[in-house]
Amino acid sequence: MKDLHYSLALPRAAQVDVQPTKLSIAYSVPTSSGSTRPSKKSSAAPKNGVREAAASATKGRILKAATKVFAKHGYDGGSIEKIAKAAGVFDRMIYYYYGSKEGLFIAVLEGVYKQMDEAESELQLDLEQPVEALLTVVRFVRNHYRKHPEFVRLLNTENLHKGKHISKFPESQRLSSTAVSVVDALLMSGVQQGLFRADLRARDVYVMIAAMGFFYESNRYTLSAFLGEALDRPETSADWERFMMEAVFRMVSVPPADFAAMARSSPVLLAR
């Protein structure tokens, strides 16, 4: 069995926290008896460690607060003052660690993408079972959007700004290439086994999965009002997940694609 550990995520922005540190050299001072005792200078290292831990904790509080504030108020409405109050810090601490409001927003985007990336890295995909592996990807993407509404709102905000903040994140193209290459590996395995079509682009299948998962969550309130049906009900949400799986299965499979027959023995579908 070949297990594929992967990350299927959209771009995230990198932040580097560079702070000046002091070089502490421990040395011995001779005593009157000829023995040596440690210099008091050696105590600087533990103090530096405490300061670094405190700085990391402060940055974490700021990032957590900013994620909530930006998700609720958007980029324009998410002021530094609101974020500082929510984090319990002074405004100047935000500027010290993140440089600007834009720098903080980029860090927030990085954080939510990293969260998805880390969750995805736990998936184990068997290349010898491409159908089950692809359905696992579909379920994961769907559930991540469903369980993390702040991610959906932040992406909506960034799309209103035409992706100008994500474009400043240097790892974005690398991450998207990784995501598409994972889908490509599954498609290739399916083609080799005579299960999948050979005329599909992995990028198109990836976008199909992401689009169906994201659109349902980002528009569920307006669609519920428009269609007269509560789309956030558990049974309705489960039906949409199954529809996503069937749509992807039928799209990638060599005709005729019998989804009902496959579903009766699919571990992924039976695990609902």
Strand order of the largest sheet: 1-4
The fold-level CATH name of the largest domain is: Tetracycline Repressor, domain 2
Count of structural domains: 2
List low-pLDDT spans: 6-34
Number of helices: 12
**CATH superfamily heading of the largest domain:** Tetracycline Repressor, domain 2
User: What is the averaged pLDDT score?
Assistant: 83
Radius of gyration: 25 Å
| Percent in helix | 55-70%
H/E element string?
EEEHHHHEHHHHHHHH
The main β sheet shows up as:
2 strands, antiparallel
What fraction of residues sit in β-strands?
under 5%
Instruction: Please state the structural category.
Output: mainly alpha
Q: Report, as a whole number of angstroms, the end-to-end distance.
A: 24 Å
Total DSSP E strands: 4
Polypeptide structure, described:
- The chain is mainly alpha-helical.
- The chain has two domains: 45-110, Arc Repressor Mutant, subunit A; 123-270, Tetracycline Repressor, domain 2, CATH 1.10.357.
- Helix content is 64%, strand content 4%.
- It contains twelve helices and four strands, in the order βββααααβαααααααα.
- It has helices at 44-77, 80-87, 91-98, 101-120, 130-147, 149-160, 172-192, 202-218, 220-227, 234-252, 259-263, 267-270; strands at residues 3-5, 28-30, 36-38, 124-126.
- Helix 1 crosses helix 6 and helix 8 packs antiparallel against helix 10 (234-252).
- The longest helix is centred in the first third of the chain and has 34 residues, at 44-77.
